[in-house]
Amino acid sequence: MEQHSQNQQELIAYIDELIKAEDYSTFQDHLAKLHPAEIAHAIESLPKEERITTWEYTPSEARGDVLTYVNDDVRSDLIDKTDLDELIEATEGLAADVLADILPDLPEKVITALLHDMDIQDKLRLESILKYPENTAGGLMSIDSVTIRPDVTLDVVTRYLRFRGELPDTTDYLFVVNREDRLLGALSLSDILTKPENLSVIDVYDPDIKYISANTDAQEIANLFEKRDLVSAPVVDENHKLLGRITIDDVVDIIRDEADHSLLSLAGLEDEDIFAPVVRSTRRRSLWLGINLLTALLASWVIALFSATIEQLVALAVLMPIVASMGGIAGSQTLTLVIRGIAVGQVGKANAKRLLYKELAVGILNGVLWATVIGLLAYFWFNNLHLGIIIGLAILFNLIVAALAGATIPLILQKAGADPALAGSVVLTTVTDVVGFFAFLGLAAMFLL
Amino acid sequence: MEQHSQNQQELIAYIDELIKAEDYSTFQDHLAKLHPAEIAHAIESLPKEERITTWEYTPSEARGDVLTYVNDDVRSDLIDKTDLDELIEATEGLAADVLADILPDLPEKVITALLHDMDIQDKLRLESILKYPENTAGGLMSIDSVTIRPDVTLDVVTRYLRFRGELPDTTDYLFVVNREDRLLGALSLSDILTKPENLSVIDVYDPDIKYISANTDAQEIANLFEKRDLVSAPVVDENHKLLGRITIDDVVDIIRDEADHSLLSLAGLEDEDIFAPVVRSTRRRSLWLGINLLTALLASWVIALFSATIEQLVALAVLMPIVASMGGIAGSQTLTLVIRGIAVGQVGKANAKRLLYKELAVGILNGVLWATVIGLLAYFWFNNLHLGIIIGLAILFNLIVAALAGATIPLILQKAGADPALAGSVVLTTVTDVVGFFAFLGLAAMFLL
Fold it and tell me: How far is A431 from chain B (nearest CA, A)?
């Protein structure tokens, strides 16, 4: 028996060592002992050349699964590096639902070959999944559910299962369907094992189980599983016909992806591939830097409007970054809270207005507090009472605007169909920079000189 | 049969409507139909007064579970609003492992009463959990696993299960133990149902299942479950004695918490309670604003060093925020990537150096690109070639420093035992602001005037 998996960092260090020592036979043996998900995770954590070497020494029977576990960028790199014949060999054993996920990334020739060798049953399965968008229940589901009729006894069910000889992974329920394959409910393995054998399925099964429509969005599926502690749930079409099931391991992936998305988007990152080629990373990130430059230029333009004022009182140039930065920080706190709230379904139409009031109240209180502190600091530093009052007013104003902007921007973006996490932070910084500089320098121009 | 849960936002709007209409009998009936997790999620999404009303109309049999589902802040608010007797009634039916999670939040008197009424078996269970820190396998585990001996037949196991009459939620494996309760392996429900009944457990069970030591850290547990698509795993002590099990619903919570933590910490937020009282929110967030102010003051001090230079050329004041802001954005991209990499175990000693090289290369390429763009912009805007060259050099320098800082700060913080996500962003901004202003104004002072 093996203790929980070798520490990820130790594994990467070990692989690195073996490759450097060119000890390829030990390397191959070690890879053969790993789970495909562990190989995938290691490949993602390695720099480019070692990725390819690791892929080359991955046992061919694990390669198909490794492809399904790595992220999109790494997958297309690995596919590029592999002969067509090897790709066919690696993928032909994959289950239809897993294959559906990676099919669009495979070369045309491999797809043709796979479809050619597939039996009609599997082809139909594959089509039924490809019909639905990738991040809906229909696109995510497995099609390996075990179904039974309501009018048999548990004893018959048990004999049927022994005849089958095995059950798909992560099976906790058999689905009860009628003659037209419409879902009636579910029978847990636990009930089959613990209830008297002479009872009928109809006496024991749960007719109230949660089911999912094929076009349900991934995020909603994750919320359901999280709230109900589910392990699997059936997926049905518009006629209530059973199509397949979603299992908890899919949901864990959804949750991880969604969380990654919020985190990375706030920094303008879309790739989670830490060892992406330098040129690819540079190109992707430079887009975000370019958008940010437009924001910064807008702020510079505001400052330029007040050049004459700054020339007369250079203390303004010294203090102005404080106004913009305090607004940016306060706004990003509200923004992050609202973006997370939207992602987990806690913030929306129903409570947006009250959340806005609460954030405004926090903005006003913190505004008063920090306006006082910074006002006093400026007064003592430059021995200029008016400067202190003006920076205080600018801080207060900018913190209130920051709360307003932080709470409303993500909701407006969401309504407009844009991604709140990706566009939110850049729009917010624009607002807090421009308002901050304008308020501070404008007040100074009006009242100070 | 009910379709996947009522949309969260619709539920909140409906509750809001019922409370406003003072239709408490419909409200009570509706709450009785909800899952405790749904009530908990709704309570978290409601403003303070409505939280209390919802709690008051929550059926008493659901209250204990609701307490376990809400976040820490909300839980202590609810506990504060509830009579001791009602608290005892709500919590006395909870399983020991669930109770262990909320026990520290309960008033002394409630704890005494609960312990007094508990049988010795349950008291021992509770103690065995409380012995381990909250975010280790020992603190997270359930103690409801079903154990069997290796030398019985599947037929005997089946009869034993029918005699038990039910199995704990999320049971996919029975654990095989010897006389001293040491873990030998596990037998899946699926195998019990599909393998010939006359076989012995010893012929069928899996001796290679993954097990978890009681002191394993939550994050490591989540990585194991994610990589291996597990539904449950046994927890053992240092003598390999079976203590309990971790189930996938605990792991989903770990993943959600960890992701929330990275996201919220980067904005200096520690509370995930969107409707926390205004004063509490203000206090918590003001700490972060205060720390940020110190950073901003440091930047201002650098600017103040060059007051004379700015007085002579006010264009410097106009352009200087661009240098700091481009550095901050580029640095936060690297920082976010590394923080996420550390959290999921992809970044560490084994590959830190190579990641640093890659990020440096990206920083240099983007530095050259944006130095050129911004240099040209500054040249045309102010018709000053030297100003263009100087801002270009400052941008290039700051983007390289940003890559260095973004890649190393989280690793240094982690080594020092600090939280990379919380402290990382403030340290990074300090570096990119100070370096940006210093490089730009310093070069200008030396070469421009």
Answer: 14
